[in-house]
Amino acid sequence: MQNVTLNNGVEMPILGFGVYQIPPEQTEQAVSDALAAGYRLLDTAAAYQNEEAVGRAIKNSGVPREELFVTTKLWIQDAPAQENTRRAFETSLNKLGLDYLDLYLMHQPYGDVYGQWRAMEDLHRAGRAKAIGVANFYPDRLVDLIANNDVTPAVNQIETHPFFQRTADQELMREHGIQIQSWGGFAEGKNSLFTHPLLSEIAEKHAKSVAQVVLRWLTQRGVVAIPKSVRAERMAENIDIFDFELTDDQMAAIATLDTGTSLFFDHHDPEIVTWLSKRRLDS
């Protein structure tokens, strides 16, 4: 597995396994299968409500803790955000059955962002979270967070796929030493991604699947990817992407698919902000 080095020296696998929208009753088996297939980066979140199942799979896997890179995410916290963040962190850690996290992400750029981040900085300094970062931060919010705090996020996990490629965002992150990570790498199959003529043609030339081409395209750009599946054979296929390379022409062709627009929701839309901010999690 190839790794990327975060801005604090922590090594992170460039390809991992995500559990978004996997029901809790299916998550333990899915994570067990993913670990058996060779994945060592696991990505969950408090909002996914399957941290306990992820933790059981880790405990029963026999994989040494030091070989794993475990990420979970903090949901929106209101004042007193620093106190609430510490409590949310301990809740997630207990559900996962772990002593520390490899990466703790602020899930949304809302609520008391500064209070949340400063509590995360404290957790990082104490060694409870080896690295801290954010998710769904657009460039303006990201630069603002950097300018007004001590620790620069190690990672920004954002929607990134062939139809929303985020190249300018990635360049800004590179300038600030922030690792881009993709969510929704397959665009959840929208725009007929898995049968797209261009992607299918490239896949045929490499004797690979469209999914493998997309994951190779992401990782070849230096984007950390976390594909999700509940099928063991698909997990094995998704991790088998390091024995081929896309040509410059193929990378350029895929670049033409970029629409520059989210296929899911706009974090600048007041209705989306209101909807997300009203969601509350049971601890």
Automatic annotation (TrEMBL):
<dbReference type="InterPro" id="IPR018170">
    <property type="entry name" value="Aldo/ket_reductase_CS"/>
</dbReference>
<dbReference type="InterPro" id="IPR036812">
    <property type="entry name" value="NAD(P)_OxRdtase_dom_sf"/>
</dbReference>
<protein>
    <submittedName>
        <fullName>Aldo/keto reductase</fullName>
        <ecNumber>1.1.1.-</ecNumber>
    </submittedName>
</protein>
<keyword id="KW-0560">Oxidoreductase</keyword>
<dbReference type="Pfam" id="PF00248">
    <property type="entry name" value="Aldo_ket_red"/>
</dbReference>
<dbReference type="InterPro" id="IPR023210">
    <property type="entry name" value="NADP_OxRdtase_dom"/>
</dbReference>
<feature type="domain" description="NADP-dependent oxidoreductase">
    <location>
        <begin position="21"/>
        <end position="257"/>
    </location>
</feature>
<dbReference type="GO" id="GO:0016491">
    <property type="term" value="F:oxidoreductase activity"/>
</dbReference>
<comment type="similarity">
    <text>Belongs to the aldo/keto reductase family.</text>
</comment>
<dbReference type="InterPro" id="IPR020471">
    <property type="entry name" value="AKR"/>
</dbReference>
<keyword id="KW-0521">NADP</keyword>
